[in-house]
Design brief:
Radius of gyration: 22 Å
Structural class: alpha+beta
CATH class of the largest domain: Mainly Beta
Oligomer: single chain
Number of strands: 12
Strand content: 25-35%
Mean pLDDT: 80
CATH topology of the largest domain: Deoxyuridine 5'-Triphosphate Nucleotidohydrolase, Chain A
CATH architecture of the largest domain: Distorted Sandwich
Strand order of the largest sheet: 3-6-10-8
Low-confidence stretches: 1-13
Order of helices and strands: EEHHEEEEEHEEEEE
Number of domains: 2
Distance between the termini: 45 Å
């Protein structure tokens, strides 16, 4: 048990409160990473000088817009997924974070979505970032070089503690609905 002084108020902090305060502290650290414009350059590496770094369109946006880095326009035909290059490589992420890849609302309204949304770019991934777009509409759609194609959201990750194999309870193998409806 410990005590904390804040604005002349004394708080008694138990272990659970301590963990909660640590979560708040980690969230504040993550927010400082997100709001520091130089930090984006530490997360991403460009494969070409002409690649645009992801950016927030508005200060209070949760997602950074990422653009297509392609030599020519790509025609998205309905129901055929396409891997669209961003020209970015992930350099580093803060511990216990991920980048979520999400569809842009303006494109979604026209039937263009991230196929595996929300996609996950893991903390340890170091390859080129490509966005899997699919046209769920009925007419073809053109993606041009430099078009904003998705949003990237830097998010904290909570990791579950996995039980040992012998701690799992034995269940049936029937799957969906095997325990009944009542």
């Amino acid at each position: 048990m410990s005590y904390s002084q804040n604005s002349d108020v004394f708080l008694r902090i138990n272990d659970q409160d301590s963990r909660y305060l640590k979560e708040i502290e980690n969230k504040k650290k993550l927010e400082s990473y997100i709001t520091d414009p130089l930090y984006v350059e530490n997360i991403f590496q460009r494969i070409d000088i002409n690649v645009q770094l992801p950016s927030y369109e508005h200060e209070d946006d949760s997602g950074m817009d990422v653009r297509a880095f392609i030599p020519n326009s790509i025609e998205l035909i309905p129901n055929i997924p396409e891997y669209i290059s961003t020209g970015l490589i992930l350099k580093a992420l803060p511990s216990d974070t991920e980048i979520q890849v999400r569809s842009r609302s303006g494109l979604s309204g026209r039937g263009i979505v991230v196929a595996n949304a929300p996609g996950t770019i893991d903390e340890g991934y170091r390859g080129q970032i490509k966005i899997i777009l699919i046209n769920i509409g009925v007419i073809n759609h053109i993606i041009n070089p430099g078009d904003r194609i998705a949003q990237l959201v830097l998010a904290p990750v909570l990791k579950a503690k996995m039980p040992l194999e012998h701690e799992f309870k034995v269940r049936g193998k029937q799957g969906f609905g095997s325990t009944g409806v009542k």
